[in-house]
Amino acid sequence: MSKDNSSHLLQTWAKEVRRPRTLKIAESDKQIAELYAAGESMIGIIGGNLFTSLGGNIGLDYPSNSTVTSCSIDIGCVSIGDDSFYFASTLLVLNLLRPWASTGIVNTQLSNGNRYAPKAHPGDGFMEEIESNLDIRQAIIARKKLRSGDHLPHPQLRLKKGKAFTYDFPKRMKLILDSKSIGRYKAFSVKVIPHAIQVIVGFSN
Q1: Between 132 and 177, residue with greater pLDDT
Q2: Which tens digits make up the pLDDT trace of 157-192?
């Protein structure tokens, strides 16, 4: 994806639309991905990392004749053989023997209150890959800085922005998508689906 295309996505990711009469509502990132997989094009969100990263306000009042702000967000797609799995916020590739030396792909600034990738944007067509080669001592120090995002830069943490990622590990890794485990795999790929679904923060029917 070119810089010009990414710039266009950022310029068009939020827009004013007429308030929908009813919408499916997602209370978590997992539900956002599920509603996307079910074919929904616009949903309301009232919980999850994406909700928090976009302001997290459930007290918004949307009168029936008003306009609302709709945000077009990217969705991550994990391909394993012929199977596809989707995530809205975070993919964790967990090293079970050395969990502090794992890999994550992040679509939101905030993940469970932590800023793993402080510059991540859910609507720019990219996701942030964080690969940790920390030893346990450095991991403990870095963990204390996660809420502020001050764990970066670090020579043992590699941060890479991308639209596609391919993995082939020597051992099976546990994959956790939006806090849900889908099993252990050696080889898989990840791609970003730009502006896959529109969300309205704090919307209720």
Answers
A1: 177
A2: 788 999 999 999 999 999 999 999 999 999 999 999
Cα–Cα distance for residue pair 193/85, rounded to 1 Å: 12
Cα gap 42→197, rounded to integer Å: 6
Nearest Cα residue to 42 out of 12, 71, 16, 9? 71
Q: List all residues 6 or more positions away from 7 whose beta carbon is below 8 Å from its beta carbon.
A: none
Residues 30 and 116: their CA atoms lie apart, in Å, by 19
What φ, ψ does residue 32 adopt, rounded to 5°? -60, -50
Please, which residues bridge with residue 127 across strands? 162
- Retrieve residue 147's tokens: 């809420």
Closest CA to 104 of 113, 86, 116: 116
DSSP string covering 142-181, please? HHTTTTTTTT-SBTTEEEEEESEEEEEEEEEEEEEETTEE
* Residue 41 DSSP SS3: coil
Owner of token pair 């600034």 = 109
Query: How is residue 60 written in tokens?
Result: 């918004």
CA pair distance 107, 190, nearest whole angstrom: 12
- Predicted TM-score (pTM) of the model is 0.88
